[in-house]
């Protein structure tokens, strides 16, 4: 969608955002985009959705400058997902959110100097501020406010009491699915509080894109959530194509939809196996990995990749489908349909698995929306959030499939959603695979692609939830600001509330059932 931002006065911003949340039911905060608008200053773009009507709007708020500081009132009391989203903006742009209870860096070291996403940040090698010394993390944080005279005040909050028993869970594989560190406060085996720590593989993808041409930015999408690589690139191509007004052929749209669903099968099969592996059950992992190979075989013959997929390009596809693609995908669908019940027989209906998953990691519908826990994990809390249904793209508005939801609100519900979603993916593929129309697989573009001036946001339904890309163009060959909305950041943000009062072993189960992928979070 092309953004037509609402702009509020700095004195009315907090009240107007509360009206949007409480009176107009914009209860889903899709993302917060920090941006350096150049001479205009620093600010944020807030993208909101009404979950009853699926209407979306955007709000632009410029930060108020106080001395060398920039401030915006927090919205974390309105949307729980704003907790980490605002910390991300603070980390990269230095905007302090007034009233936010935990203004610490989110990705970078606590001793990092400066804010690297500002346009005036010195990126030269001699200005490299990283060190190999240990990062001495403070055991306190700050909450900022303005006094009666408009001066910035900082109130210190201790993160831990003297009696807290703190355990670092992670960063290691497979328990935290990669380099995610969860600083966990325990009372015996019971979880009291979780502080997530990110940034161990943060590669500055969004900053790099500001110096890349638009075709060059595509190379980074398969290095985010590598199990949603097709959808990542689909979202990036989609926002650029929408901004440029590129009309794609039906052949391109059919093939993209099929490839997205094959990627979903790939991801969900790995999920089924990893849930078992995380709980110590190897057999189910072997079964799902066996069948995942068949999915990868069908994709590889066209894309040339197995783990890494980089098939889409601006204006269509890298190449046409392999001559055997249709027959092999049809054979795959026939092979895999009986296997879904096998996964339940081997693992899903196992009494140990049921005891480990049921009523573990509870998340209500209201909290799922407030934290922005989209995708299958949100649909397990009865939130109808499927982007393919709410904001159709490619061929999703023309095929018949069910949005799978349940109201179990626990890890078992999240597991069952994936089983049923794989059936729907096969259903979508079977409707399209015999009907791929003739036509161009690529709409030729100019050698130098320039996007018209403006701001756009485009979403796809990834394997773990909504993937969004925000694009701010100044009419140049490179984006002025490119922001990837990750799926996993919202999932991890909710873990603290989901796990309070649960046991340490339930933390591993909850993480497995949420299905986050660390490069998607760290970007």
Automatic annotation (TrEMBL):
<dbReference type="GO" id="GO:0051287">
    <property type="term" value="F:NAD binding"/>
</dbReference>
<keyword id="KW-1003">Cell membrane</keyword>
<keyword id="KW-0520">NAD</keyword>
<dbReference type="Pfam" id="PF00346">
    <property type="entry name" value="Complex1_49kDa"/>
</dbReference>
<comment type="similarity">
    <text>In the C-terminal section; belongs to the complex I 49 kDa subunit family.</text>
</comment>
<dbReference type="GO" id="GO:0005886">
    <property type="term" value="C:plasma membrane"/>
</dbReference>
<dbReference type="Pfam" id="PF00329">
    <property type="entry name" value="Complex1_30kDa"/>
</dbReference>
<dbReference type="InterPro" id="IPR020396">
    <property type="entry name" value="NADH_UbQ_OxRdtase_CS"/>
</dbReference>
<dbReference type="GO" id="GO:0016651">
    <property type="term" value="F:oxidoreductase activity, acting on NAD(P)H"/>
</dbReference>
<dbReference type="InterPro" id="IPR037232">
    <property type="entry name" value="NADH_quin_OxRdtase_su_C/D-like"/>
</dbReference>
<dbReference type="InterPro" id="IPR022885">
    <property type="entry name" value="NDH1_su_D/H"/>
</dbReference>
<keyword id="KW-0813">Transport</keyword>
<protein>
    <submittedName>
        <fullName>NADH-quinone oxidoreductase subunit C</fullName>
    </submittedName>
</protein>
<feature type="domain" description="NADH:ubiquinone oxidoreductase 30kDa subunit">
    <location>
        <begin position="9"/>
        <end position="125"/>
    </location>
</feature>
<dbReference type="GO" id="GO:0048038">
    <property type="term" value="F:quinone binding"/>
</dbReference>
<dbReference type="InterPro" id="IPR029014">
    <property type="entry name" value="NiFe-Hase_large"/>
</dbReference>
<dbReference type="InterPro" id="IPR001135">
    <property type="entry name" value="NADH_Q_OxRdtase_suD"/>
</dbReference>
<keyword id="KW-0472">Membrane</keyword>
<feature type="domain" description="NADH-quinone oxidoreductase subunit D">
    <location>
        <begin position="449"/>
        <end position="523"/>
    </location>
</feature>
<dbReference type="GO" id="GO:0008137">
    <property type="term" value="F:NADH dehydrogenase (ubiquinone) activity"/>
</dbReference>
<dbReference type="InterPro" id="IPR001268">
    <property type="entry name" value="NADH_UbQ_OxRdtase_30kDa_su"/>
</dbReference>
<comment type="subunit">
    <text>NDH-1 is composed of 13 different subunits. Subunits NuoB, CD, E, F, and G constitute the peripheral sector of the complex.</text>
</comment>
<keyword id="KW-0511">Multifunctional enzyme</keyword>
<feature type="domain" description="NADH-quinone oxidoreductase subunit D">
    <location>
        <begin position="278"/>
        <end position="446"/>
    </location>
</feature>
């Amino acid at each position: 969608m092309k953004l037509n931002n609402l702009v509020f006065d700095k004195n009315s911003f907090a009240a107007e955002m509360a009206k949007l949340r409480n009176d107009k039911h914009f209860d889903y905060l899709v993302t917060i985009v920090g941006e350096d608008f150049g001479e205009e200053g620093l600010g944020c773009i807030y993208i909101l959705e009404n979950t009853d009507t699926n209407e979306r709007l955007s709000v632009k708020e410029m930060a108020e400058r106080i001395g060398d500081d920039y401030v915006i009132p927090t919205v974390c009391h309105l949307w729980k997902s704003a907790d980490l989203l605002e910390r991300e903006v603070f980390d990269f742009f230095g905007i302090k959110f007034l009233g936010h209870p935990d203004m610490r860096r989110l990705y970078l070291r606590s001793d990092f100097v400066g804010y690297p996403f500002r346009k005036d940040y010195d990126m030269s090698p001699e200005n490299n501020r990283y060190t190999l010394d240990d990062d001495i993390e403070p055991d306190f944080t700050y909450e900022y406010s303005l006094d009666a005279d408009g001066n910035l005040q900082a109130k210190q909050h201790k993160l831990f009491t003297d009696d807290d028993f703190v355990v670092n869970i992670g960063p290691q594989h497979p328990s935290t699915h990669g380099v995610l560190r969860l600083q966990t406060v325990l009372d015996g085996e019971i979880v009291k509080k979780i502080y997530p720590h990110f940034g161990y593989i943060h590669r500055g993808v969004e900053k790099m894109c500001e110096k890349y041409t638009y075709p060059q930015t595509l190379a980074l999408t398969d290095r985010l959530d590598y199990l949603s690589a097709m959808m990542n690139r689909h979202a990036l191509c989609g926002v650029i194509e929408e901004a440029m007004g590129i009309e794609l052929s039906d052949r391109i749209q059919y093939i993209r939809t099929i490839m997205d669903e094959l990627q979903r099968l790939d991801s969900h099969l790995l999920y089924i196996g990893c849930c078992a592996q995380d709980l110590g059950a190897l057999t189910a992992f072997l079964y799902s990995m066996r069948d995942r190979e068949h999915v990868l075989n069908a994709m590889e013959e066209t894309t040339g990749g197995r783990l890494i997929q980089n098939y889409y390009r601006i204006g269509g596809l890298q190449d046409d489908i392999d001559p055997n693609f249709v027959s092999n995908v049809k054979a795959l669908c026939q092979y895999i349909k009986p296997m879904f019940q096998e996964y339940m027989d081997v693992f899903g209906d196992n009494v140990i698995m049921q005891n480990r998953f049921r009523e573990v990691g509870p998340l209500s519908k209201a909290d799922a929306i407030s934290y922005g826990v989209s995708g299958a994990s949100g649909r397990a809390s009865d939130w109808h959030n499927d982007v393919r249904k709410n904001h159709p793209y490619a061929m999703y508005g023309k095929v018949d499939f069910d949005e799978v939801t349940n109201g179990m609100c626990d890890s078992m519900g999240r597991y069952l959603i994936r089983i049923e979603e794989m059936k729907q993916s096969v259903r979508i593929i079977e409707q399209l695979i015999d009907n791929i129309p003739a036509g161009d697989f690529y709409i030729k573009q100019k050698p130098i692609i320039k996007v018209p001036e403006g701001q756009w946001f485009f979403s796809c339904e990834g394997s773990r939830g909504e993937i969004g890309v925000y694009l701010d163009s100044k009419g140049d060959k490179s984006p002025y600001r490119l922001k990837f909305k990750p799926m996993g950041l919202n999932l991890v943000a909710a873990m603290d509330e989901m796990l309070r009062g649960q046991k340490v072993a339930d933390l591993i189960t909850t993480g497995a059932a949420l299905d986050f992928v660390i490069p998607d979070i760290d970007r």
